Amino acid sequence: MLVSWKYRPRNTFIQRLDPRSRLIFLACVILSLTIPNIWDIRLIFPLFLLTLTLYLLAQIEWKDVRRAWLFIFFLIFFIVGLNGMLSGRGGPTSVMNDTSAPLFTLPVYFPGTTWGFSLEITLVRIVFAITQMTRMLSMAILALPLPYTMDPNIYGVAFRKMGVSDKVSFTMDLAFRFLPTLARDLSITIDAQRARGYEMDSLKGGIVARLRRLAPLIVPVTMQSTVTGEEVIDAMDLRAFGTAPRTWLKDLHFARRDYLFIALGVSIFVAFCVLKWGFGIGEFWIPPALVAGLN
Amino acid sequence: MNEFPLVIENLSFQYRSRPELAIEAVTFSLRQGEMLLVAGSSGCGKTTLARCINGLIPRSYGGTRQGNVLLNGKEVAEMSLVQVAQVVGTLLQDPERQIVASNVYNEIAFGPENLGLPRDEIMARVEQVLKRLKIEHLRNRDTFTLSGGEKQKVALAGLLVMRPSILLLDEPLASLDPASAHEALAVFRSLADEGASIVLVEHRVEDALAARPDRLLYMNAGRIQYLGQIDDLPPSIDHHQVKLPAQWVVRRAQQTQEFVLPVSAPAAEKDAEVLVAFEQVGFAYGPDLPQVLHNVNLQIRRGDMIAVLGPNGAGKSTLVKHAIGLLKPVSGRVLVKGKDTRELSVAQVARTLGYVFQSPTHMLFAPSVREELAFGPQNLGFSKEEIARNIRESVQTVNLAGFEEYPPLGLSFGQQKRTTIASVLAMQSSIMVMDEPTAGQDYANYTRFMDAMCHAEGTKKSLLSENFAATLFITHDIDLAVTYANRVLLVSNGTLLADGCPEEILSDFALLESCRVRPSSLLRLNLELLPKTGKFLPAEALVQYVA
Fold first, then answer.
1. Same domain? A273 vs A219
2. DSSP state of B457
3. Smallest Cβ distance to A3: which of B109, B110, B144?
4. Which of A127, A275, B175, B516 has its CA 20 to 30 A from that of B373?
5. Cis, peptide link before residue B58, omega less than 30° from 0
6. Structure confidence at residue B454 as a pLDDT band (50, 70, 90)
7. Could you tell me if residue A166 is inside a domain?
C-alpha cells in the first residue's frame, strides 16, 4: 500500500491556487532559466527572491521539510557549488574557457603520497558557483513545497486536466506517492537489520565494499517495492482500471488568481527570452567592482 | 436475477510453469444469497479457484483451463474485465494490497470512476455504501492512517460500490484483530442476507462459523473432498489442516484415537533472574504526537514464554522495540541485563535480545541461507569458527539443513520465516522476540511451525527453551497464548492492562473484551476442564479429560 507525503490543508494563497497553475508556473521558471540559458545573476537573483517569497507564502513548518532541505543543500552546495567552483563544468563557455589569474591554489593529494593535482580557484569560478547555486535554488525552492502543499487526491486529476491520458495521469499519481512509501519501507528494513547488529556508521572501505555493506538495506527495499508494485497492479485490474475512458470524480476549475499566476510565469519566460535573444542580456556576469578590486 | 449467479462445471487448471494440475474436476454452484465457505490447507487449490472466478485466470495467469465458470450464465473467459468486475467483487487477503487511492472517498469511488459512470451516480453510490457499512465518519481520512479493521471495511466498500452479485472474500480475516474479524464476519452475513452470493475462502473454519455460512467446500490436492453442511463434517477432513472448534477436534481425536502428551511450557517463575526491565516507560513518536506508551512497568525473566495480546495499534510493537533499543523511552527507562538502553547501541542489545520482524522480506537479502545466517554474528564480531558452528546448529534446529546454499528469497514463505528465526538463533542472543510469528502462514503451516519452536516432550525442552533464556511473541491468535505461553501480557491504548499466567489472565472475559480479544472455543473448553487439567493444554491433549 502506498503512503502519502506529509500534506496538511492550510488556508494560504499557494494552496488556494489550482495545482495546474502551480505546475505550469514551475515549468515556466525552469524553462526561463534553461531555454534562453540565463547565467546573469542580475536576472537570476530577483527570480530567486520571487520564488523565495512564494515559498514563504506556503507557510510550511520547518520540521516537516528539514530533511528534504538538508538533502537539497547538500546536493546544491557540495555537488553543484563545489563542482562549479573547482571545474566550472556545466557553465557557459566563458567559464569553461576561463584563463583569468587564480586567486589561490588548492592542493588535492592522496594523504602520504605525491599523487594528486593542484586546483586553481579564480574569481570567475567563485562567481559562477554562486550563480549556479542561486539558479538551482530558484527552481528547488519552488518544487519542494509541492508534495507538502498539494492534496494527494488531486495529483492524478491535475495531470489529466492538462491533457495527459488516464493511464499516465494515474501513473504520475502513484509515482508521487512512491517516494514516501520507499522511505517507510527503508525505515522498517533499517530497524530489522539494526536488530541484527548492523550499523550504518560501519560503512568503511572502497566503493565496492560500501555497496556490499548497503546490500542488507537495498535488497529488501527493492523486493518490497516490486511486491508493492505488483499488488497495486492486481488491485487496479480487479477494479477495471484502464478498460474504459475514466470519470475523474474531482473536478478542477481555474480562478482569476490562477490566470494571473500563469500569466506571471509566462511573462517571466517571454521576458528572459527577449532579454537574451533580443538584447543580449543574460550571459554570465561578474560584478565589475569585484574585478576592479582585484586589479 | 439469476438463481445461480455462479456455476462451475468440471473445472481444471494447470499453470504453465507447473507439471501438475492446480485444481481438477471442480463442480459446484452458488445460489443467490448463499454463503459458501471454501477451506483447505496451503496448496489445496483455493487461490486458483478464486482466480478462475474473478477472471485473473486466464487473463493474468497463463496455463491450460478446462471446464466452465459461468457468471450469471456467461462464461467468464468470454467476458471483459469490466464486465467481470461488475459481477464479482474480490476482497484480497490483506486490505493493504487492495487500496490504491490516498483518501477513503476516492478509494471507494475508484471502481465506478474506472467504469466511466456519470459523476452524480458515482457520488450517490459512494454515499450509499458509506452508509451501508457505517463508515461515513471515515470519508475524509487518508487511507494509510486507517486501522486494519477500517482498511478492510473501506476495501469492501470499494467492491460493494460496483454492485457485484458475487463477493469473493479471500482469507479476509488474516490481518484483523479478533474483534475486527468478528465485526467483518457480521457484515458478510448481513450482505448475504440482503441477497449477495458470497464465496468465503478461509482456513480458520472456527472463526468463519460466526458468519453462519450455508455450506462448506473442503479442498485437498486440487480436488473437492467435501461439499455440504458444516455441522456434518466427515471425519476424513483433517483437523490439522484447518482450524476447527476445539470440541470438534476433541471429537475427531477421540474417533481417530489420536493421543497427544499433555505438554506445555513450564510455569513462569516469579523470582527468576530479570533479563529486561521496563520502569515507568512512556513514549511518543514526536513532541506534538499522542503518547503511545503510558507508564509501562514490566520484567522479562529467565524461563518466560510470553504472549503479548491486544488490538491493532495498541502499542505492542512499540513496546518490544523498546526492549531491543530501536526506540528509547521519552520517560522512564528500559534496562537490558541491568544496563539502560539509552547507553547501549542496538547492536549491543542484539547480543542479549534477538528480534524477528513480522515480514521476512524486510530482513532477507543475502544470496544464500548461509550468508544470511552469518550476517548477524559477523556484525557482532563472532570468530569464523563460531559463525560456522552457529550456522550449522541453527539450520539443523529450524529444519533447514540442506538449504544452506539456497537463496532465501527463493524459498517458500514458511521456510523464509524459519530462515529469519535461524538468523536470530545464530546470533546466540539470550531472549527471542517474535512479532506475529504466524502472520502470512496458513493454519497447518503455522501450527507446525509453532509446534517445532515451542513443543517440549518429556524431559526434552522445546527448541525455544533450549536456545533462549526467554521468549516473547506478539500475536492476535489467542490459541497460541493458550497452547504455548506461560505468561500473557494484555496491552491496550499503550497501557499494560494485565500481566500473569494464561490460566488467570485469560479467564477474565471482561478484561479480554476491553482489549478486543475474543475467547476461542479452545480457551472456553480449557477453562471448563481446568479443575481436572490444572493448566491450559492443546485440544488434542484434552481428549483424556473429556467425559
1. no
2. B
3. B144
4. B175
5. yes
6. confident
7. yes
Selecting from A1, A193, A251 the residue whose C-beta is nearest the C-beta of B97 gives A1
pLDDT at A1: 59
What chain B holds in terms of domains, given with CATH numbers, is 6-244 (3.40.50.300)
CB contact under 8 A, A195 and B346: yes
Same domain (yes/no): A175, A128? no
Identify whether A168 is part of a domain. yes
CB B492 within 8 A of CB B314: yes
Q: How far is the CA of B210 from the CAs of B109, B185, B189, B213, B237, in angstroms?
A: 30, 7, 9, 8, 20
Residue B142 to residue B149: CA distance in whole angstroms = 15
Contacts B114 to A, Cβ<8 Å: 239-244, 246
Smallest Cβ distance to B361: which of A224, A235, A251?
A: A224
Helix (H, G, I), strand (E, B) or coil at B172: coil
Tell me the DSSP string of A190-220. Answer: HHHHHTTT--GGG--SSHHHHHHHHHHHHHH
AA letter at B198: I
- Kindly tell me the number of DSSP H helices and DSSP E strands found in chain B: 21, 20
Per the CB < 8 Å rule, is A195 touching B366? no
A7 is a domain residue: no
Q: Give the pLDDT mean for B308-316.
A: 87
User: B82 with A210: CB under 8 angstroms?
Assistant: no
Taking an 8 Å cut-off on Cβ atoms, the answer to whether A1 and B99 are in contact is yes
Q: How far apart are CA B30 and CA B25, in angstroms?
A: 16
Is residue A40 located within the same domain as residue A141?
A: yes
Which 149-178 residues of chain B touch chain A by CB within 8 A? 158-159, 162
Yes or no, beta carbons of A215 and B324 under 8 Å apart: no
Write out pLDDT tens, residues B73-91: 999 999 987 788 889 999 8
Is B113 in contact with A248 (Cβ distance < 8 A)? Answer: yes
Task: Note whether A146 and A91 are same-domain residues.
Answer: yes
Q: Which residue has the cell 569560478?
A: A125
Rounded to 10°, the helix B413-425/B384-397 angle is 140
C-beta of residue B297 within 8 angstroms of C-beta of residue B274: no
Is the same domain home to A132 and A197?
no
Q: What is the mean pLDDT of residues B249-267?
A: 71
A144 and A173 share one domain = no
In a domain, A180, yes or no: yes
**Minimum CA–CA partner of B378 in chain A:** A197
Question: Are B424 and B376 a contacting pair, CB within 8 Å?
Answer: yes
Left, alpha or beta for B221 (phi > 0: left; psi -120 to 50: alpha)?
left
Q: What range does the domain containing A91 cover?
A: 18-151+254-295
Q: Which residues of A touch B409 (CB under 8 A)?
A: 219, 223
**Of B100-104, B216-220, B269-273, minimum mean pLDDT range:** B269-273
Per-residue model confidence (pLDDT) at position A52? 95
Residues A119, A228 share a domain: no
Query: ipTM greater than 0.90, yes or no?
Result: no
Contacting B residues, span 459-498, partner chain A, CB-CB under 8 Å:
none
pLDDT bin (cut points 50, 70, 90) of residue A202 is: low
Distance CA A24, CA A29 (A): 9
Between CA B420 and CA B431 the distance in angstroms is 15
Same domain, A283 and A237: no
Q: What domain count does chain A have?
A: 2
Q: What is the pLDDT of residues A152-192, one digit of tens each?
A: 888 889 999 999 999 899 888 888 878 878 888 888 899 99
Torsion angle in degrees (nearest 10) through CA of B353, B359, B364, B368: 100
Please give the residue of chain A at the shortest CA–CA distance from B423: A196
Question: Do residues B530 and B542 touch, judged by C-beta distance below 8 A?
Answer: no
